[in-house]
């Protein structure tokens, strides 16, 4: 399998069927630009087809797991129907391609994990967070509905009450707290993160692959049943990119200030 076409992702193969999917480049916090957002969707099809891979560990860089989408990507979605339509399709494919990938996916979450990167982190079959990691679904802070992955997975992982608390307020959740409320599989000290990810990946890679993959497929039927909920959330997120709130949210991010959203809503 040739992964050379990817510009925002690297695939590093290790022994015994383990591979790393590495987001971003050394020294930078990974952020998805126009090309990178699509790559986050495509990579899971390639991993699924790669006979050399049994388990994939997805991680970011030393500075963190993910910064979400670039400001250029967000601005272009605000201004362009074509960009919104493409990102809508890719956002759906990130989720569904991870759910349908037959290979086991392990996420190793360090530093900030935001936006589409957070979707990848939490949709992994086993999510391991550094205790000091910072998980942030910042959609409502930006001025759009919590789409991406939130509606399909957060209530199942941590319950509706917690999901609403964190998604409506765009609250930051530490890796330690994420483990406590069931948002991630486990939390470890930061210096043990990658060792823990590789230890679990090695156990999975040495296991009965058909049994493991069919177990994943069966469990993920819970997520497939929630597909209409997810599709609705992503559609409403994209609708939000046409309104005034996201323009103010984007301006506030650029100007490093608290947003002053317009009062009221037509809905």
From TrEMBL:
Pfam families named among the record's database cross-references: ECH_1 (PF00378)
UniProt protein name: Enoyl-CoA hydratase
Family the UniProt entry places it in: Belongs to the enoyl-CoA hydratase/isomerase family.
PANTHER family assigned: ENOYL-COA HYDRATASE, ENOYL-COA HYDRATASE ECHA15 (ENOYL HYDRASE) (UNSATURATED ACYL-COA HYDRATASE) (CROTONASE)-RELATED
MF annotations from Gene Ontology: catalytic activity
